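Class, discuss our next protein.
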Amino acid sequence: EGAGECSHCPVGRFALMGSSRCDVCGPGLVPDADQVSCRACEAGTYAGNAGSECLLCHTGFHAHRASSACTIDVTYIALVLLCVVVQHLGLVPLRRNLRRRICIRDVSQLG
């Protein structure tokens, strides 16, 4: 390539304006759309070392903004266990709230 010509970095890498070297973003970061800087992964997503995209955490796991991995969502696990116990005792889930089941005693059975 001739002097002064620009070329794109490979997927998952970025180059600062004026730089001829492509670098890897750190954990929890991915190259922006223009590949000139890194941006943080949003909450609920993660990117490991040299990630090219932010990946969604699986159900029951969470990640804070700029995370390199997902961790177990203890609150979600506790609610799932509560639902299992509640259903075992003959109680029923009445609604979903923020994508998590809230299990309470069926109001019609209370009377």
User: Anything to note?
Assistant: Confidence is low (pLDDT under 50) at residues 94-102, 104-111. The longest strand covers residues 92-97.
